Amino acid sequence: MHESSLGGTLRDYLTGDEIDETTFEEFRQALAKLLVEERGYPKEQLKAKVPLKYCVDGEDYERPLDLVVYDESGKPMLVVIFCAGEVGTFERETICAGRLIEGGPVAFAIVSDSMDASLLDVRTGDLIARGMQAVPEYEKLVKMVDEAEVKPLTDEQREKQTRVFHTYCGFIYGTCCSESCSLPPMPKK
Question: Which of 23, 25, 126, 127 has the smallest number of CB atoms closer than 10 Å to its CB?
Answer without folding.
Answer: 126
